[in-house]
Amino acid sequence: MTVSASTAALPRQAALPVLIALSVTHLLNDMIQSLIPAIYPIIKESYHLDYIQVGLITLTFQISASLLQPAVGLVTDRHPMPYSMVIGMTSSLLGLVALAHAGSYGLLLLAAGFVGLGSSIFHPEATRMARNASGGQHGLAQGIFQIGGQTGSAVGPLLAAFVIVPRGQASLSWFSAAAFAAIVLMIWTARSSARIPSRPRGKPSAGHGAGGGHGIERAPAARTLSAVILAMAVLIALLFSKAVYTSSFTSFYTFYLMGKFGVSIQTSQVMLFLFLASSAAGALGGGMVGDRIGRTPIIWFSILGALPFTLILPYASLFWTGVLTIVINLIMSSAFAAILIFAIELMPGRVGLVGGFFYGVSFGLAGIAAAMLGALADHFGIETVYRICSFLPAIGLLAWFLPRPHSIADA
């Protein structure tokens, strides 16, 4: 494809429409995903499930959403396939319809697996496309992309509270319209992104090189394999603490509220929505501020800022539980874009691979955590689970071992 001089100037002009479109598709994709945990209170009663069986549904979904992501990312780095997102959404559509009409626990697991498979295809390529459309403002681009996903995740509980709970499991099929809308938007996005020329692999964006542009702190290109491995291990540990803590809410928060405070299903779903919705603001704010002050300060803020509130939460009243969960997720979600961009800058030219790996790790850890937390809840009670999870953000203190600017390059 020949790129004219006028088209070469397109990235900065066309970035916002493409990024918004990617954000909306992320919203629709993650909204469909979020319907799975949102209906847990319904299917737990209908199918007489215990907590570990609920956790296994999350594990099935998250594992299927994680296994293929690094492989998809590796392939799309070498051979971009923007239309692969359509295939992913088709898988999610099939899973959603199957979930609506499943008549057994086994079919619930299979349907959840199809939805997870769709997610594993969507995220790596969408992450690559968002970075290519960033015009060099990587934090802002990831923030816009993330706010769609976070908003979609937050909408699920509201839809469950006001649509699915009154009308039953079969009403899930109504949301097939959202999947069809996402497919149409994905086709438009793929065509539009094809007109944006990719930057040379491994070459920093204009104004974002070492010592240049907006005062941005970059993770320098690593010269030693050991330095990259150490940095990646620390970033994965940070994701672990966040993924497990968040999983305790997406899978079991409604049960915690109903058991401890005696609230209705609808009230618990609204409170889950407030918890998840706060992550949208945190993701966008963290991405934008990270472009200005650097990734490492944002990561530290998400750790030290959230820990005091997580320790207080298990002992709070209903009102303060709602307030604290919003504050906690607002702070914790601010770091995901910073963590992802930090990893991408450690491995330049591998955007799809890194995006797929980190999304995959995040989904996989969350799924394993849901199964483990479900077993703990069955044996020790749901409130004990939240007391244990309150210490998880402390794992983030490992951020001390992240490389400082130029420290890897100088090693």
Summarize the structure.
It contains 17 helices and no strands.
Textual characterization of the structure:
This protein has a single domain (15-199, 218-401), classed as Up-down Bundle (Growth Hormone, Chain: A), CATH 1.20.1250. The chain has helices spanning 5-8, 10-38, 40-46, 51-66, 69-78, 84-101, 105-132, 138-167, 176-193, 225-261, 265-293, 295-304, 307-312, 318-332, 336-346, 351-380, 382-389. With 411 residues, it is mainly α. The chain is globular and about 50 Å long. It contains 17 helices and no strands. The protein is 74% helix and 0% strand. The relative contact order is 0.17.
Q: Which structural traits does this protein have?
A:
about 400 residues, mainly alpha, Growth Hormone, Chain: A, disordered N terminus, disordered C terminus
Largest sheet: none
- How many domain regions? 1
Please give the oligomerization state of what you see.
Answer: single chain
Portion in helices = over 70%
Tell me the radius of gyration: 21 Å
Give the low-pLDDT segments: 1-14, 200-222, 406-411
User: Could you report the average pLDDT, rounded to the nearest whole number?
Assistant: 80
- According to CATH, what is the topology? Growth Hormone, Chain: A
The gross shape turns out to be globular
Report, as a whole number of angstroms, the end-to-end distance. Answer: 41 Å
Q: How would you classify the helix and strand content by structural class? A: mainly alpha
Number of helices: 17
What top-tier CATH class fits best? Mainly Alpha
Q: So, the CATH homologous superfamily?
A: MFS general substrate transporter like domains
Following the backbone from N to C, one meets helices and strands in this order, namely HHHHHHHHHHHHHHHHH
Number of strands: 0
Q: How much beta, percentage-wise?
A: under 5%
| CATH architecture field | Up-down Bundle
